[in-house]
Request: fold
Amino acid sequence: MARTEWGNQTAITEFVLLGFGYLQELQIFLFLLFLIIYIGTMAGNILIVVLVVADQHLHTPMYFFLGNLSCLEICYSSTILPRMLASLLTEDKSISFLGCVMQYYFFGCLVATECYLLGVMSYDRYLAICKPLHYVTLMNGKRSRQIAAGSWICGLLTNTIITSLMSQLLFCGPNEIDHFFCDLTPVLNLSCSDAHLVELVTFILASIGTMPLFLLTLMSYVYIISTILRIPSTTGRQKAFSTCSSHLIVVTVFYGTLIIVYIVPETNALREVHKVLSLFYTVLTPMINPLIYSLRNKEVRKALHNAVNKFIVFRETQAKSSCFRLL
Reply:
């Protein structure tokens, strides 16, 4: 292991991600499972992005935010899964200090950005259902682009501050991280310097950035559900709820697991539970988002059907052209 002298202490320049090492006999199975998940995640989210860009009917704020979310999920999965797959395949669990810091940086930026995007998408659904007459004015194309750009910028800035503070810590003791990626808390637990400033700044930024978004999402759905319940016709209620049910499922899974992992105290008994729950918002949520939005959304299914039909027609035209050339 590479080490450098730091005064009278030896600074660690390499960590070991223990991951799921206790399931040694299942390493090949886990590799194949996470490989399938990664391929499915990339394929599903790329498909959503292509449909949103290519289909004119999806050029609305709602689907613009959905396209942004899919782009984020592509980056999100690529931050964690390739490194995990390499570790499972080669059994090399080491990661450099710089590599660990960079992984946490991108992971943290993307998590923060997803919180902003999910909050914005909740507000968008609130305007569409509760303020339909003012929706076009309050959420037009230009404003949706500005809000999406603001979400990305805020996510990047928030975690830049935390990561810069974390990178200045000294690590000179144990170097084994009991996780499958470089999350903040497991890394801080290994620091032999005072990490209270990092923890305080993280708490303040998370409180300022995340809690208002969570409350915005919660209040948006309180108003949405109350508005839907006041719709007299059953068909109208079902149609209104179908426009936001997919997003509600994603928000519930994302925030539910996030709250359990980061708010419920981590004890020896709950450490493995936390690790498994971390899979939900880091690995499974990016995979199920395209499935939820495509299978439960009539317009996305219609866009996919049109794209498939266009592709079939194009292939038939190409085949006929080839036959004529041969003749």
